[in-house]
Design brief:
globular; alpha+beta; five-stranded mixed β-sheet; about 40% strand
Length: about 180
C-alpha cells in the first residue's frame, strides 16, 4: 500500500516537472450525470482543469456556488486524439439564467448555450481543440455548467480561469495523456 502510494507520488511529481507551466489545478471528474450528483467546483476563483470522459449522449453537471458577484471564465476543450467527431456542447444553467428550457432540467431552470468555434490548441502539455468560452458576471448563488455529449464519445477538459494556485489531484495529472490521445 505504501509502495503504491509512493509510486503514485513519484508519477505525479514527474508529470509536474514535465509540464511545469501547467498552472491550472488538474482534477478528474469520474462522472456527474445529474444535478444531484454534480461535480462541485470548490473555488471558482482558482484556475482549475477538470478532465472528464463522455460516452455518446451523456452529460456531466458542475456546480458553481458564487458567494459574491464575480466574473466566471470557462473554456471547453477536447483532446486532439478525438478528431472532429467529438464536439460536446457547453451550457450555463440556473434559476436566473434567461434562455432555453431543456428536457433534462427541472422546472424554473433556464439554460444558455455557450457558443464557440473549435480551433487547434497546444500548450501547457495539452494537444487539443478549444471550443466554447464563457466570460460572464455571475450573481451570488448557484449556477451549473453542463457539458453535453453528442453522438460520439471522447475526453473533455473544462477549464476554470482564475488565480494560479498550485494543486490538483494525482487522478487529474494522470488524465492529461488520456485526454490528449482521447483513449484510456
Amino acid at each position: 500500500m505504501v509502495k503504491a502510494f509512493l509510486m503514485l507520488m513519484v508519477f505525479a511529481a514527474t508529470l509536474h516537472f514535465a509540464f511545469p507551466v501547467f498552472a491550472h489545478q488538474p482534477f478528474w471528474n469520474p462522472g456527474s450525470s445529474t444535478m444531484e450528483r454534480a461535480y462541485r467546483i470548490a473555488d471558482p476563483s482558482v484556475s482549475q482543469a477538470i478532465f472528464g470522459q463522455l460516452r455518446s449522449g451523456e452529460r456531466d453537471f458542475f456546480l458553481v456556488e458564487m458567494t459574491t458577484e464575480s466574473l466566471l471564465q470557462v473554456s471547453l476543450f477536447v483532446g486532439e486524439g478525438c478528431g472532429e467527431t467529438f464536439r460536446p456542447k457547453l451550457w450555463l444553467v440556473g434559476e436566473n439564467i434567461e434562455g432555453n428550457s431543456l428536457p433534462f432540467l427541472p422546472e424554473g431552470m433556464g439554460a444558455q448555450k455557450i457558443e464557440g468555434t473549435w480551433r487547434p490548441f497546444r500548450g501547457h502539455g495539452l494537444r487539443a481543440f478549444k471550443g466554447p468560452e464563457l466570460r460572464r458576471r455571475i450573481s451570488p448563488g448557484r449556477v451549473y455548467l453542463v457539458v453535453e455529449g453528442t453522438d460520439a464519445a471522447g475526453f473533455y477538459l473544462l477549464s476554470i480561469n482564475g488565480r494560479e494556485v498550485p494543486g490538483g489531484s494525482p487522478e487529474g495529472w494522470q488524465a492529461i495523456p488520456k485526454f490528449n490521445q482521447c483513449r484510456e
